[in-house]
Amino acid sequence: MPDLYRLVRPLLRALPPETAHRVTIAALAAGLGGRPREPDPPSLRRPLWGLDFPNPIGIAAGFDKDARAPEALLRLGFGFVEVGTVTPRPQPGNPKPRVFRLHEDRAVINRMGFNSGGLDALVARMTKRDRGEGIVGINIGRNRDSADSMEDYVEGVRRAAPVADYLVVNVSSPNTPGLRDLQARAVLEALLRQLLDVRAETGVSIPLLVKIAPDLKSEECTDIATVALETGIDGIVVANTTIARPPELRSPQAKETGGLSGRPLFAPSTALIAEMYRLTGGRMPLIGVGGVASAADAYAKIRAGASLVQLYTALIFEGPALIGKVKNGLPELLRRDGFASVGEAVGVDAAGGSHG
Ligand SMILES: Cc1cc2nc3c(=O)[nH]c(=O)nc-3n(C[C@H](O)[C@H](O)[C@H](O)COP(=O)(O)O)c2cc1C
User: Fold this and answer.
1) Does the active-site annotation cover 173?
2) I need a surface site. Which of 95, 104, 198, 307 has the fewest CB within 10 A?
3) Which range (6-10, 276-280, 304-308) has the least confidence?
């Protein structure tokens, strides 16, 4: 895929972002880029939640919303893939255009609005996959016109748990009205308790995580950390896209409505990882996501408290060679600082040590 990618890159860059994305997913689903992957260095192996992650770098939610190509993404070298966000019923999302490349800022703004083929189609694809290929999580959301958010997430857990390796409850996308209000303490606690009950009913004890926004006030962070620890969920994905517009943005598209991702999100989302790591006393595994575009970026997330790392936007600018670049650089950074494995470096920048 990397060689082929070099050839098609000018074409992809010339296409509108969403068309380029559709072509990429179709190519991956058709088996292009299907080289057997090389084994990852042992220092990158990350045992967590009873799963054995071959490396800590995953593709974030939103890239393969309908689970069309998780195996191909694993073959590109990702240590894990998060598909979704999937909504219970199919829905088209917002009118196009709804994705904007901010070239000067190495960023993207999207207001996709959970375009989704729905749970039936996604579960059917996930049922057919070869589970030996690697770790695939499912990120679940609610339909825009749903009268009852809780029911949508309940259905998501019930249907997705049997075919996923982990689940993420997405309460943080900025493009579904009211969604982020589910992060408020009492609401979140009720939602997560119910979803943990539903998971128990399914008899499938896969990890259940919640994905949070980078735009939370400090009391909200404290509340979420408390709820996460008290309910006993398995982890937190930090973070989704931001509605903030940092003053340094230079691209004309910076004024578009939606969630901003990529380089400008790196510093605030890494600071939020450090904050959540501190608030949870290092007892709650965190997946760090936001603006990762190099091994040094991934390493900074790990040192701030991320047990695993995800990326998306940098892939749009750099293509699949980025995955190798990040994975090749990480072992050297670990060795330089005297760590034998990723686990040893988790949270070392926070006072109070690491949970390994
Ligand atoms: C086009 C696009 C679509 C996205 N869709 C989703 C989604 O459906 N669900 C979700 O939880 N996050 C979604 N995200 C957010 C990413 O998963 C990630 O949290 C965010 O982009 C920050 O990482 P990055 O800077 O590496 O892109 C989307 C991001 C982009 C750019």
Assistant:
1) yes
2) 95
3) 6-10
Query: Which tokens in the block code for residue 243?
Result: 């509605």
Which amino acid is located at 151 in the chain?
E
HSE on the CB side for 309, CA within 13 Å? 34
**CA distances in angstroms from 102 to 98, 161, 217, 307, listed in the order given:** 13, 36, 26, 29
User: Which residue's CA lies nearest to atom 5 of ligand 1?
Assistant: 62
Residue nearest to atom 4 of ligand 1 (CA): 62
Q: How far apart (Å, rounded) are the C-alpha atoms in residues 331 and 290?
A: 21
What is the tens place of the pLDDT at every residue in 179-202? Answer: 898 888 899 999 999 999 999 999
pLDDT greater than 60 at residue 98: yes
* The pLDDT of residue 61 is above 70: yes
| pLDDT at position 356 over 60 | no
Tell me how far the alpha carbon of residue 343 lies from the centroid of ligand 1, in angstroms.
25
Pocket of ligand 1 (CB under 6 A): 60-62, 65, 85, 99, 108, 110, 112, 139, 170, 173, 211, 240-241, 261-262, 265, 289-292, 311-314
Q: Exactly one of 173, 269, 341, 354 is catalytic; which is it?
A: 173
Mean pLDDT of 207-223: 96
Sign of CA dihedral 300, 61, 67, 319: negative
Among candidate residues 105, 95, 94, the one with its CA nearest the CA of residue 252 = 105
DSSP secondary structure letters along 161-204 = GGG-SEEEEE---TTSTTGGGGGSHHHHHHHHHHHHHHHHHHT-
Q: What's residue 14's pLDDT?
A: 81
For residue 9, give both structure tokens.
């890159």
Single out the residue of 235, 233, 85, 88 nearest to residue 156, CA to CA.
88
Q: Quote the CA–CA distance of 255 and 94 in Å, as a whole number.
A: 17
Question: What SS3 state is found at 152?
Answer: helix
Is-contact 195 209, C-beta < 8 A? Answer: no
Percent of the chain with pLDDT over 70: 96
Tokens at 231, concatenated: 């309910």
